[in-house]
Design brief:
Elements: E1 2-7, H1 21-29, E2 33-38, H2 46-55, E3 59-63, H3 78-85, E4 90-99, H4 107-124, E5 128-133, H5 136-146, E6 152-154, H6 161-169, E7 173-176, H7 186-194, E8 200-202, H8 224-235, H9 239-253
Parallel strand pairs: 1-2, 2-3, 3-4, 4-5, 5-6, 6-7, 7-8
């Protein structure tokens, strides 16, 4: 059985399932996906992701503010974040982090927000979900500064092995998405081969980044199976073993999640 460790259920394109989220989740379950982690990206969608976690027993959620969803000139307020995290189905913090690819001018604000999320992780003991793009040195510096005992995950990882190893050394997990299937992702596939089995997660990041053979189409949680099957091939492992291992890893990292 599989877990989609990072999906945006409130943003899915449901055309393939006649507009029904119920049908989309059932299609994923039919392909062996037993649990879904629905990710918060802003103050505006916190209620939506919590509502989905309340509605479905196999959905848990995170709450946080994505670095590209920050209010201009203002980081989120710690009291707000702690209040949102005080919910039985909010099992993680984020996604948070740094993205200098699109908004390098907002680096200072992003760092302030990232530190706030890491402070919340220290206070609550909940793991943090990290987005990082073209901000390698600063991301690692802030993670080292935080020194979280429960760590978290670098999701949708696209960096090189040096960064992966540095994050692993800090206790973090590495999650791979459909990007690993892309034709030009040789360097990422090399990372995929090296990540220790007990620190690997799989995700869709749906509705974004659909794996081959669905690249260019709307991504769906059911396609986490394609990601896992491809990773098993790359790593020279049996699919069933990889599925079992990544699910065990998810349970270990997110102990509050309601995974059967």
């Amino acid at each position: 059985m599989l877990v989609d460790s990072h999906c945006h259920l409130d943003r899915l394109d449901l055309a393939a399932h006649n507009g029904s989220l119920d049908a989309a989740l059932e299609a994923a379950r039919g392909r062996g996906v037993q649990h879904f982690l629905c990710i918060g990206v802003s103050a505006a969608n916190a209620a939506a992701v919590k509502g989905l976690a309340e509605q479905y027993a196999d959905v848990d959620c995170s709450v946080g503010v994505h670095p590209l969803d920050l209010e201009p000139g203002a980081a989120p307020v710690l009291d707000w974040l702690l209040d949102e995290l005080n919910h039985p189905h909010v099992v993680a913090i984020g996604e948070t982090g740094l993205d200098y690819h699109y908004e390098p001018e907002a680096a200072e604000l992003q760092q302030q927000s990232f530190r706030l999320h890491l402070d919340a992780a220290r206070i609550t003991g909940k793991p943090v979900i990290v987005h990082t793009r073209e901000a390698r040195a600063d991301t690692l510096a802030l993670l080292r500064e935080a020194a979280l005992p429960q760590a978290g995950v670098l999701h949708c990882f696209t960096e090189d092995w040096d960064m992966a190893k540095a994050a692993l050394d800090l206790g973090f997990y590495i999650s791979l998405s459909g990007i690993v299937t892309f034709r030009n992702a040789d360097a990422l596939r090399e990372v995929a081969r090296k990540v220790p089995a007990d620190r690997l997660l799989v995700e869709t990041d749906s509705p974004y980044l659909a794996p081959i053979p669905y690249r260019g189409k709307a991504n769906l949680p059911q396609y986490v199976r394609e990601v896992a099957e491809f990773l098993a091939l790359v790593r020279g492992e049996r699919f069933e073993a990889l599925a079992e291992q990544t699910t065990a890893n998810f349970k270990r990292l997110f102990p509050l999640a309601r995974v059967v």
